[in-house]
Structure formats: structure tokens, C-alpha cells
Amino acid sequence: MRYATAYDVGERKRPGGINEDSLAVSVFEDGHREGYLGPDHGTEPHAETGTTRSAAVVVLADGAGGHDAGDVASYIATTRIAEELAPVAVRAARVDPEGFGLDLPDRAVPAPDRPAEGSGRTARADTEGAGHGSDPSRQDRLGAAVETAVQRAHHDVLAYASEVDTAAYTTVVAGLVVDGRFYYGWVGDSRAYVCNAAHDHIARLTEDHAVVEQLHADGEIDGVEARVHPRSNELTRAVGGRGDAADVAVETAAVDLFAEDTLLLTSDGLPDAQSDARALYDRYVDSGRSEAAAAQVRDRVVTDADIREWVLGAGSLSAAADRLVAAGNDRGGKDNLSVLLAQDPTLPETPARLPVRSRAPHPAHRQDTVVEE
User: Fold this and answer.
1) Nearest-angstrom CA–CA distance, 254 and 114
2) Could you give the angle at the alpha carbon of 333 between the alpha carbons of 197 and 82, nearest 5°?
3) Confidence (pTM)
4) Model pLDDT for residues 16-60, shown as the tens digit of each residue
5) For residue 323, how far is the Cα from the chain centroid?
6) 218-to-67, 84, 212, 221, 226 alpha-carbon distances in Å
7) What angle separates helix 317-330 from helix 304-312, to the nearest 10 degrees?
8) What gap in Å lies between CA 343 and CA 259, rounded to an integer?
């Protein structure tokens, strides 16, 4: 598995700004018979009996800048979630020896981990279109593991906030990549995308837990307004808080990944880079929502099509990560920018008919993030 990250305070916050984003990655590579061949091996068989398998944990969090300790909250969240999920990833790979062509007696393979008791899972699992890596029992188990990890991070942030008597909030998007399937969960407006080179396609895997997302879903604003709406910095859900003990609702899902896919996690500093959103909004509304004003909005903001072009047009993951951050700063650089990209070229090739993986069709612009209370 290959991965790359990029991390920037954002053009408008230089100098002296604080980057409240955090990233964590844990990759497990296991080679059998021929041994581990490194992250740049391709999809060709290594030998008749040789193979390499990967499992990974990816986490991104964006601390809420409108509160006192967003940077601490994001750090706590990424480190705790990675700590919880790294052994789950290794165990998930270990309990399926058939991936290496091995036939072991049941006693030689440990039983899978079960969800923690009292996890209070409120998530939903997406099994539609499940393919090469799908298994309802595994999906339940790994989806619950992601939800539990986020809940534990949530309570860690609450404990910190209570101890220092402050507010501490962060968004989170996190997941497990195991045997060609991404099991993920999120709270807030940090996003997951998957870009597929075989079909020149991008799918947004998450829906923002935000006021503007709800306004658009309810039909109160159109898709152009959703990109530049004045309330687009307001979250409806976040990890952490002011010290109360309530759980947070974690949304979960799972999708198949393919050899030509690039998985992208990003904070809202990329899709919400435009710093003149309010002026664009006023111009669009004052024009009677004209197509000319709508075209100007689309031209100025970062769209999903832009993200697809920057990811798939780059020569490497590190080049793509740098391009995303540079482009976000060029479009305004209003907030912290962080991106995490991952690929696994050993996975099966993309089918001729690409499965539907998108969960949300419309991005929205944000300012410094605040949590609606």
C-alpha cells in the first residue's frame, strides 16, 4: 500500500496561525512465501505461491477554531483512534489466511474481535453494491470497531475539556482498509473521497454533519447557495464538547476499493478554500440566482471535479497531495489544509461497471468552523 500526506496552515492564516488539523496513518504489510516486496509492487503475481497483503488505518481530524482547544481535540482524536484500530487491522488480516492460499485448522486462527459491549452504536452500514471484500458479519464487526474507536476518542476529548474547563471540539473521518474494502466512519465535515483512474471518476463517501448540508437536503437552498452560504461554517455534530458525558452519533459505511482507486481524506480547508464566499453568495442571490452568477461561483470554488483532476492528473501520491494543498491556497487558502491519500495496486482491477459509491453530491463552503449548540 502506498500513501502520502500534506499539511498546511492555510494562506490566509500565515504568519502566526495555528494548524488545528491532525493526521494519523498505520499500515500493516504482510508478505508470505516470497516475502514482503515493498509498497511499489504491482498487481502481477509474485510467483505461483507468493503474495503480499495490506491492512491500514487512516484518520484525519480538524479541530474547531471557534473554540478554545481545537488543536488539542484533533490530536487526541487521531492518536486515540489510531491506537484503537491498528490492532483491529492486523487481526482482521490475520483471521483470513485463505488470502495467502493457506488452509489452517480453526484452532490455529483466532476468533474475530467482537464490538465492545455498550458501544451505543448509532451508525448505519452500507452494503449496497458490496463486492470482492464484502461480508455482512465482517462489515458489522469492523464498522462497530470504527464507531467504538471514535466514541472512545470523543470521551477522551470530553475528559480533557472537563479537566481544563474549556470547550474542545473536532471533526473526524477515519477508517480501516482491509482486503480491498474501506470500513469508515465520520463526525462533522471532514470528508472522504475515492478517485478512480479507470473511469476518470470521483465519489464523495461522506455527508457533512452541518447546517448547510441539512438546508440543502431539505430543499431550502440550491446547490450553488450550498457552496457559499453564510452559515456554512456551522456544524451540527462534532467529537468532544464541554465535558458532558453523552455519546456522539457516528455515521459509518463501507465500500469496495480497486487497484485504480485513490482514497482521499481531507479537512474542509480544501473544498472550502474560497475566501470571498459571502460576496459570491450575495451576488448570486441579488442576481435572482442567475446562471451567469452560478457559473462564477462554480469557477471560484473548489469543486469535486477539480479534486478529481488534481488527484488523477498527478504523477504520484506525494505530487497529488502537494497539488491539492497548493490549489487550495491558490483558491483562497481560508483555513488549515490537510490531505491523506492512499492506494493499493495489489487489489482487483476496477470492473467495467463501476459500483455506485457516492453518498453526497454537493460540497459546501465553510469559514472557521463552529459547532451549533
Assistant:
1) 18
2) 60
3) 0.84
4) 888 999 999 999 987 766 555 555 555 444 444 446 778 999 999
5) 18
6) 28, 36, 10, 8, 12
7) 140
8) 7
Cα 305 to Cα 169: distance, rounded to the nearest angstrom: 30
Supply 150's cell numbers: 471514535
Min mean pLDDT across 157-166, 188-197, 361-370 is at 361-370
Type of residue at 264: L
Q: Are 104 and 97 in contact (CB under 8 A)?
A: yes
- Cell triple for residue 61? 481530524
Q: What does the block give as the cell for 224?
A: 450553488
Counting every residue written for the chain, the total comes to: 373
d(CA 87, CA 286): 55
Q: Are strands 234-235 and 370-371 parallel, antiparallel or unpaired?
A: parallel
Which of 283, 64, 20, 13 lies closest to 168, judged by CA? 64
Chain centroid to CA 5: how far? 13
- Taking only the tens place, the pLDDT of each residue in 336-361 is 999 999 999 889 999 999 999 987 54
282 residue type, one letter: D
119-150 residues labelled b (16+ CB within 10 A) or e (exposed): bebebebbeeebeebbeeebbbbbbbbbbbbb
For residue 265, which of 317, 332, 305 has the smallest C-alpha distance? 317
